Amino acid sequence: MTTTPTSQLPADHPLTSGLTSESALLNQYRGSRTSAGAPASPERRPVWFMRQAGRSLPEYRELREGTSMLDSCLNPDMASEITLQPVRRHDVDAAIFFSDIVIPLRLAGVGVEIKPGVGPVLDAPVRTAADVAALPELDDAAFAPITEAIQRTTAELGSTPLIGFAGAPFTLAAYMVEGRPSRDHLGPRAMMHTDPQTWNALAAWAADVSGRFMRAQLMAGASAAQLFDSWAGSLGRADYQRHVLPHSTAALSHVSGLSGPDGVSAPLVHFGTGTSEILDLLKTAGADVVGVDYRLNLSEATRRLGPETPLQGNIDPAFLTADWSVLEAHVREVIAAGSGAAGHVLNLGHGVPPETDPAVLTRVVELIHSIDP
Ligand code: CP3
Hints:
By secondary structure, this protein is of the alpha/beta class.
Protein backbone atom coordinates (compact mmCIF):
# COMPACT_ATOMS: atom_id res chain seq x y z
CA MET A 1 0.00 0.00 0.00
CA THR A 2 1.41 3.41 -0.90
CA THR A 3 0.14 6.59 0.67
CA THR A 4 1.28 10.12 -0.09
CA PRO A 5 3.51 11.21 2.79
CA THR A 6 2.05 14.10 4.74
CA SER A 7 4.18 17.10 5.66
CA GLN A 8 1.95 17.75 8.68
CA LEU A 9 3.18 16.88 12.16
CA PRO A 10 0.52 15.36 14.44
CA ALA A 11 -1.64 17.66 16.59
CA ASP A 12 -0.09 16.41 19.85
CA HIS A 13 3.48 16.91 18.61
CA PRO A 14 5.58 19.16 20.92
CA LEU A 15 6.23 21.56 18.03
CA THR A 16 2.56 21.77 17.16
CA SER A 17 1.41 22.22 20.74
CA GLY A 18 4.03 24.95 21.22
CA LEU A 19 5.95 23.10 23.97
CA THR A 20 9.29 23.26 22.15
CA SER A 21 8.68 25.73 19.31
CA GLU A 22 10.09 28.72 21.21
CA SER A 23 12.92 26.86 22.93
CA ALA A 24 16.42 28.36 22.89
CA LEU A 25 17.60 25.51 20.65
CA LEU A 26 14.95 26.01 17.99
CA ASN A 27 15.31 29.78 18.01
CA GLN A 28 19.02 29.45 17.23
CA TYR A 29 18.43 26.72 14.63
CA ARG A 30 15.99 29.10 12.92
CA GLY A 31 18.62 31.86 12.86
CA SER A 32 16.59 34.11 15.12
CA ARG A 33 19.46 36.56 15.59
CA THR A 34 18.63 38.09 12.23
CA SER A 35 14.90 37.54 11.92
CA ALA A 36 13.10 40.82 11.44
CA GLY A 37 11.79 42.28 14.67
CA ALA A 38 13.11 39.40 16.75
CA PRO A 39 13.55 40.46 20.36
CA ALA A 40 17.05 40.26 21.78
CA SER A 41 16.85 36.66 22.94
CA PRO A 42 16.01 36.64 26.64
CA GLU A 43 16.84 32.98 26.91
CA ARG A 44 20.08 31.18 27.58
CA ARG A 45 22.64 30.16 24.99
CA PRO A 46 21.78 26.59 23.91
CA VAL A 47 24.22 23.69 24.12
CA TRP A 48 24.09 19.91 23.70
CA PHE A 49 26.80 17.34 22.99
CA MET A 50 27.05 14.70 20.30
CA ARG A 51 27.30 11.33 22.14
CA GLN A 52 26.14 12.98 25.37
CA ALA A 53 24.43 9.67 26.12
CA GLY A 54 27.03 6.97 26.46
CA ARG A 55 30.03 5.55 28.17
CA SER A 56 31.13 8.79 29.86
CA LEU A 57 28.13 8.37 32.21
CA PRO A 58 28.29 5.78 35.04
CA GLU A 59 24.48 5.54 35.03
CA TYR A 60 24.66 4.58 31.34
CA ARG A 61 27.31 1.91 31.90
CA GLU A 62 25.22 0.44 34.71
CA LEU A 63 22.01 0.33 32.68
CA ARG A 64 23.71 -1.13 29.61
CA GLU A 65 25.34 -3.96 31.60
CA GLY A 66 24.52 -7.28 29.89
CA THR A 67 22.51 -5.83 26.98
CA SER A 68 24.02 -5.38 23.53
CA MET A 69 24.11 -1.91 22.01
CA LEU A 70 21.49 -2.54 19.31
CA ASP A 71 19.20 -4.46 21.70
CA SER A 72 19.29 -1.47 24.08
CA CYS A 73 18.37 0.84 21.19
CA LEU A 74 15.34 -1.33 20.40
CA ASN A 75 14.14 -1.57 24.00
CA PRO A 76 11.87 1.50 24.37
CA ASP A 77 12.34 1.72 28.16
CA MET A 78 16.11 1.61 27.92
CA ALA A 79 16.42 3.88 24.90
CA SER A 80 14.20 6.45 26.57
CA GLU A 81 15.98 6.30 29.93
CA ILE A 82 19.44 6.58 28.30
CA THR A 83 18.26 9.55 26.22
CA LEU A 84 17.11 11.33 29.38
CA GLN A 85 20.22 10.64 31.51
CA PRO A 86 22.46 13.42 30.13
CA VAL A 87 19.59 15.95 30.18
CA ARG A 88 19.04 15.36 33.90
CA ARG A 89 22.73 15.35 34.69
CA HIS A 90 24.07 18.20 32.56
CA ASP A 91 21.01 20.45 32.07
CA VAL A 92 21.71 20.55 28.31
CA ASP A 93 19.22 22.32 26.03
CA ALA A 94 18.34 19.27 23.95
CA ALA A 95 18.16 15.52 24.17
CA ILE A 96 19.53 13.45 21.30
CA PHE A 97 17.66 10.23 20.77
CA PHE A 98 19.67 7.20 21.91
CA SER A 99 19.93 4.97 18.87
CA ASP A 100 22.45 4.29 16.13
CA ILE A 101 22.89 4.96 12.44
CA VAL A 102 22.76 1.20 11.71
CA ILE A 103 19.36 0.69 13.41
CA PRO A 104 17.50 1.00 10.05
CA LEU A 105 19.67 -1.84 8.72
CA ARG A 106 18.78 -4.02 11.70
CA LEU A 107 15.08 -3.13 11.34
CA ALA A 108 15.20 -4.03 7.64
CA GLY A 109 16.63 -7.44 8.54
CA VAL A 110 20.27 -6.88 7.55
CA GLY A 111 22.60 -8.80 9.89
CA VAL A 112 24.54 -6.17 11.85
CA GLU A 113 26.02 -5.86 15.34
CA ILE A 114 27.95 -3.15 17.13
CA LYS A 115 31.12 -4.70 18.45
CA PRO A 116 32.28 -2.92 21.62
CA GLY A 117 35.35 -0.81 20.95
CA VAL A 118 35.09 -1.49 17.21
CA GLY A 119 31.79 -0.23 15.82
CA PRO A 120 29.26 -1.57 13.30
CA VAL A 121 30.08 -5.01 11.82
CA LEU A 122 27.87 -6.66 9.19
CA ASP A 123 27.41 -10.44 8.78
CA ALA A 124 28.21 -9.98 5.08
CA PRO A 125 29.52 -6.92 3.26
CA VAL A 126 27.42 -5.46 0.39
CA ARG A 127 29.74 -5.23 -2.60
CA THR A 128 28.14 -6.41 -5.83
CA ALA A 129 25.08 -5.51 -7.90
CA ALA A 130 23.52 -8.78 -6.72
CA ASP A 131 24.23 -7.92 -3.05
CA VAL A 132 22.50 -4.57 -3.48
CA ALA A 133 19.55 -6.06 -5.36
CA ALA A 134 19.11 -8.55 -2.50
CA LEU A 135 18.83 -5.83 0.19
CA PRO A 136 15.50 -6.23 2.02
CA GLU A 137 12.73 -3.66 1.99
CA LEU A 138 12.24 -1.77 5.22
CA ASP A 139 8.63 -1.84 6.38
CA ASP A 140 7.52 1.29 8.25
CA ALA A 141 5.86 -0.95 10.86
CA ALA A 142 9.38 -1.95 11.97
CA PHE A 143 9.83 1.54 13.46
CA ALA A 144 7.33 0.71 16.27
CA PRO A 145 9.99 0.43 19.04
CA ILE A 146 11.49 3.76 17.91
CA THR A 147 8.11 5.49 17.95
CA GLU A 148 7.35 4.08 21.38
CA ALA A 149 10.72 5.13 22.83
CA ILE A 150 10.30 8.65 21.46
CA GLN A 151 6.77 9.03 22.81
CA ARG A 152 7.96 8.01 26.28
CA THR A 153 10.94 10.34 26.05
CA THR A 154 9.09 13.46 24.91
CA ALA A 155 6.47 12.91 27.62
CA GLU A 156 9.29 13.30 30.17
CA LEU A 157 11.17 16.06 28.37
CA GLY A 158 8.37 18.64 28.41
CA SER A 159 9.72 21.84 26.87
CA THR A 160 13.22 20.44 26.20
CA PRO A 161 13.39 19.49 22.51
CA LEU A 162 14.39 16.01 21.37
CA ILE A 163 16.68 15.76 18.34
CA GLY A 164 16.31 12.76 16.04
CA PHE A 165 19.06 11.65 13.67
CA ALA A 166 20.22 9.28 10.97
CA GLY A 167 23.42 8.39 9.15
CA ALA A 168 23.95 10.04 5.78
CA PRO A 169 23.99 7.68 2.79
CA PHE A 170 27.78 7.79 2.32
CA THR A 171 28.59 7.01 5.95
CA LEU A 172 25.99 4.23 6.14
CA ALA A 173 27.01 2.77 2.77
CA ALA A 174 30.67 2.93 3.81
CA TYR A 175 29.91 0.51 6.67
CA MET A 176 27.87 -1.69 4.33
CA VAL A 177 30.57 -1.98 1.65
CA GLU A 178 33.46 -2.48 4.06
CA GLY A 179 31.37 -4.64 6.39
CA ARG A 180 33.12 -2.93 9.32
CA PRO A 181 34.78 0.36 10.26
CA SER A 182 37.69 1.38 8.04
CA ARG A 183 40.20 4.17 8.01
CA ASP A 184 40.15 5.36 4.40
CA HIS A 185 36.81 4.04 3.08
CA LEU A 186 38.50 2.73 -0.06
CA GLY A 187 35.70 0.21 -0.72
CA PRO A 188 32.84 2.70 -1.19
CA ARG A 189 35.12 5.27 -2.84
CA ALA A 190 36.31 2.68 -5.37
CA MET A 191 32.74 1.47 -6.04
CA MET A 192 31.71 4.98 -7.16
CA HIS A 193 34.20 4.77 -10.00
CA THR A 194 34.35 1.08 -10.86
CA ASP A 195 30.61 0.42 -10.69
CA PRO A 196 28.70 3.72 -10.39
CA GLN A 197 25.38 2.02 -11.08
CA THR A 198 25.73 -0.32 -8.11
CA TRP A 199 27.01 2.56 -5.97
CA ASN A 200 23.98 4.67 -6.87
CA ALA A 201 21.58 1.82 -6.12
CA LEU A 202 23.23 1.21 -2.73
CA ALA A 203 23.38 4.90 -1.78
CA ALA A 204 19.73 5.32 -2.84
CA TRP A 205 18.75 2.39 -0.58
CA ALA A 206 20.70 3.94 2.30
CA ALA A 207 19.12 7.36 1.68
CA ASP A 208 15.67 5.83 1.74
CA VAL A 209 16.08 3.93 5.02
CA SER A 210 17.90 6.83 6.75
CA GLY A 211 15.35 9.37 5.52
CA ARG A 212 12.48 7.23 6.77
CA PHE A 213 14.26 6.62 10.10
CA MET A 214 14.49 10.40 10.65
CA ARG A 215 10.91 10.85 9.53
CA ALA A 216 9.67 8.23 12.01
CA GLN A 217 11.48 10.06 14.83
CA LEU A 218 10.10 13.46 13.85
CA MET A 219 6.54 12.19 13.45
CA ALA A 220 6.76 10.50 16.87
CA GLY A 221 7.81 13.70 18.66
CA ALA A 222 11.36 14.82 17.83
CA SER A 223 11.51 18.59 17.23
CA ALA A 224 14.63 18.66 15.03
CA ALA A 225 16.83 16.13 13.24
CA GLN A 226 20.50 15.80 12.39
CA LEU A 227 22.02 13.95 9.45
CA PHE A 228 25.48 12.57 10.37
CA ASP A 229 27.91 12.19 7.49
CA SER A 230 30.79 11.25 9.73
CA TRP A 231 33.03 9.98 6.95
CA ALA A 232 32.26 12.49 4.16
CA GLY A 233 35.61 14.10 4.90
CA SER A 234 37.33 11.25 3.07
CA LEU A 235 35.88 12.53 -0.22
CA GLY A 236 37.18 15.21 -2.56
CA ARG A 237 34.79 17.93 -3.72
CA ALA A 238 34.10 16.45 -7.15
CA ASP A 239 33.29 12.99 -5.80
CA TYR A 240 31.15 14.41 -3.02
CA GLN A 241 29.20 16.57 -5.43
CA ARG A 242 28.65 13.90 -8.06
CA HIS A 243 28.33 10.65 -6.14
CA VAL A 244 27.11 11.61 -2.65
CA LEU A 245 25.36 14.97 -2.48
CA PRO A 246 22.31 13.84 -4.53
CA HIS A 247 21.77 10.96 -2.11
CA SER A 248 22.15 13.14 1.02
CA THR A 249 19.66 15.53 -0.57
CA ALA A 250 17.29 12.61 -1.09
CA ALA A 251 17.65 11.53 2.57
CA LEU A 252 16.85 15.04 3.79
CA SER A 253 13.91 15.35 1.39
CA HIS A 254 12.03 12.78 3.52
CA VAL A 255 11.92 15.29 6.36
CA SER A 256 12.16 18.77 4.86
CA GLY A 257 9.25 21.05 5.62
CA LEU A 258 7.63 18.80 8.23
CA SER A 259 5.59 21.31 10.19
CA GLY A 260 2.64 21.89 12.46
CA PRO A 261 -0.60 23.51 11.29
CA ASP A 262 0.76 26.99 12.04
CA GLY A 263 3.76 26.40 9.79
CA VAL A 264 6.36 25.95 12.56
CA SER A 265 8.73 23.45 10.98
CA ALA A 266 11.30 21.06 12.41
CA PRO A 267 14.83 22.35 11.70
CA LEU A 268 17.39 20.02 10.09
CA VAL A 269 21.13 19.93 10.83
CA HIS A 270 23.80 18.47 8.54
CA PHE A 271 27.10 17.46 10.14
CA GLY A 272 30.26 15.67 9.07
CA THR A 273 33.86 15.51 10.20
CA GLY A 274 36.77 16.66 8.06
CA THR A 275 34.30 18.54 5.86
CA SER A 276 35.91 22.00 5.87
CA GLU A 277 36.60 21.87 2.13
CA ILE A 278 33.09 20.68 1.22
CA LEU A 279 31.12 22.68 3.79
CA ASP A 280 29.44 24.85 1.13
CA LEU A 281 28.34 21.71 -0.74
CA LEU A 282 27.03 20.13 2.47
CA LYS A 283 24.81 23.17 2.96
CA THR A 284 23.19 22.71 -0.45
CA ALA A 285 21.78 19.28 0.53
CA GLY A 286 18.85 21.05 2.14
CA ALA A 287 19.43 21.29 5.89
CA ASP A 288 18.83 24.58 7.74
CA VAL A 289 21.87 24.38 10.01
CA VAL A 290 25.45 23.27 9.33
CA GLY A 291 27.35 21.39 12.03
CA VAL A 292 31.05 22.23 11.98
CA ASP A 293 33.75 19.89 13.26
CA TYR A 294 36.62 21.06 15.47
CA ARG A 295 39.03 21.71 12.60
CA LEU A 296 37.48 24.90 11.21
CA ASN A 297 37.10 28.19 13.09
CA LEU A 298 33.43 29.18 13.14
CA SER A 299 34.14 32.66 11.79
CA GLU A 300 35.74 31.00 8.76
CA ALA A 301 32.70 28.72 8.47
CA THR A 302 30.50 31.83 8.37
CA ARG A 303 32.76 33.35 5.71
CA ARG A 304 32.32 30.19 3.61
CA LEU A 305 28.58 29.75 4.17
CA GLY A 306 27.32 33.31 4.60
CA PRO A 307 26.07 34.96 7.80
CA GLU A 308 22.50 33.75 7.22
CA THR A 309 23.50 30.12 7.90
CA PRO A 310 23.02 29.05 11.54
CA LEU A 311 25.93 26.98 12.84
CA GLN A 312 26.40 24.22 15.39
CA GLY A 313 29.70 23.42 17.05
CA ASN A 314 32.61 23.22 17.62
CA ILE A 315 34.39 22.83 20.96
CA ASP A 316 37.39 20.60 20.36
CA PRO A 317 36.94 17.42 22.46
CA ALA A 318 40.72 17.42 22.98
CA PHE A 319 40.27 20.40 25.35
CA LEU A 320 38.02 18.40 27.71
CA THR A 321 41.04 17.03 29.56
CA ALA A 322 42.90 20.36 29.71
CA ASP A 323 43.11 22.63 32.78
CA TRP A 324 39.81 24.40 33.37
CA SER A 325 41.28 27.83 32.50
CA VAL A 326 42.47 26.48 29.14
CA LEU A 327 39.10 24.85 28.41
CA GLU A 328 37.18 27.95 29.51
CA ALA A 329 39.24 30.20 27.22
CA HIS A 330 38.59 27.79 24.33
CA VAL A 331 34.81 27.76 24.95
CA ARG A 332 34.78 31.59 25.04
CA GLU A 333 36.71 31.68 21.75
CA VAL A 334 34.21 29.33 20.11
CA ILE A 335 31.33 31.56 21.28
CA ALA A 336 33.06 34.65 19.89
CA ALA A 337 33.84 32.92 16.58
CA GLY A 338 30.19 31.90 16.21
CA SER A 339 28.82 35.38 16.87
CA GLY A 340 28.73 36.33 13.20
CA ALA A 341 26.25 33.58 12.27
CA ALA A 342 22.47 34.05 12.27
CA GLY A 343 22.22 31.39 14.95
CA HIS A 344 24.67 29.34 17.00
CA VAL A 345 24.12 26.20 19.04
CA LEU A 346 27.14 25.15 21.07
CA ASN A 347 28.29 21.56 20.69
CA LEU A 348 31.52 19.61 20.44
CA GLY A 349 33.36 19.33 17.13
CA HIS A 350 32.75 15.54 17.35
CA GLY A 351 31.34 13.13 19.94
CA VAL A 352 32.08 13.01 23.67
CA PRO A 353 35.12 10.74 24.16
CA PRO A 354 34.11 7.80 26.45
CA GLU A 355 36.82 8.64 28.99
CA THR A 356 35.51 12.21 29.53
CA ASP A 357 34.88 13.24 33.13
CA PRO A 358 31.13 14.03 33.12
CA ALA A 359 31.65 16.75 35.75
CA VAL A 360 33.66 18.67 33.16
CA LEU A 361 30.75 18.56 30.71
CA THR A 362 28.35 19.83 33.38
CA ARG A 363 30.74 22.70 34.12
CA VAL A 364 31.01 23.56 30.41
CA VAL A 365 27.20 23.76 30.23
CA GLU A 366 27.11 26.04 33.30
CA LEU A 367 29.75 28.28 31.75
CA ILE A 368 27.89 28.55 28.44
CA HIS A 369 24.63 29.34 30.22
CA SER A 370 26.36 32.00 32.33
CA ILE A 371 27.49 34.01 29.30
CA ASP A 372 24.83 36.47 28.12
CA PRO A 373 23.40 35.51 24.74
O1 CP3 B 1 24.35 10.62 22.42
C1 CP3 B 1 24.23 10.58 21.18
O2 CP3 B 1 24.90 11.27 20.39
C2 CP3 B 1 23.08 9.74 20.60
C3 CP3 B 1 23.35 8.46 20.23
C4 CP3 B 1 24.25 8.10 19.06
C5 CP3 B 1 24.95 6.88 19.05
N1 CP3 B 1 25.49 6.67 17.82
C6 CP3 B 1 25.02 5.97 20.20
C7 CP3 B 1 26.18 5.06 20.28
C8 CP3 B 1 24.44 8.68 17.80
C9 CP3 B 1 23.95 10.02 17.30
C10 CP3 B 1 25.22 7.78 17.04
C11 CP3 B 1 25.57 8.00 15.63
C12 CP3 B 1 26.64 7.19 15.05
N2 CP3 B 1 26.85 5.84 15.16
C13 CP3 B 1 27.57 7.70 14.12
C14 CP3 B 1 27.61 9.12 13.66
C15 CP3 B 1 28.21 10.02 14.66
C16 CP3 B 1 29.70 9.90 14.84
O3 CP3 B 1 30.11 9.54 15.94
O4 CP3 B 1 30.43 10.19 13.90
C17 CP3 B 1 28.41 6.63 13.73
C18 CP3 B 1 29.57 6.72 12.79
C19 CP3 B 1 27.94 5.45 14.38
C20 CP3 B 1 28.46 4.07 14.28
C21 CP3 B 1 28.99 3.64 15.60
N3 CP3 B 1 28.18 3.19 16.62
C22 CP3 B 1 30.32 3.69 16.09
C23 CP3 B 1 31.52 4.12 15.30
C24 CP3 B 1 30.29 3.26 17.43
C25 CP3 B 1 31.43 3.22 18.44
C26 CP3 B 1 31.94 1.87 18.72
C27 CP3 B 1 32.78 1.88 20.02
O5 CP3 B 1 32.49 1.05 20.88
O6 CP3 B 1 33.69 2.69 20.13
C28 CP3 B 1 28.95 2.97 17.73
C29 CP3 B 1 28.44 2.50 19.03
C30 CP3 B 1 27.70 3.53 19.80
N4 CP3 B 1 26.69 4.28 19.28
C31 CP3 B 1 27.86 3.82 21.17
C32 CP3 B 1 26.90 4.77 21.48
C33 CP3 B 1 26.60 5.37 22.83
C34 CP3 B 1 28.85 3.15 22.09
C35 CP3 B 1 28.23 1.90 22.58
C36 CP3 B 1 28.84 1.44 23.88
O7 CP3 B 1 28.35 1.89 24.94
O8 CP3 B 1 29.75 0.63 23.85
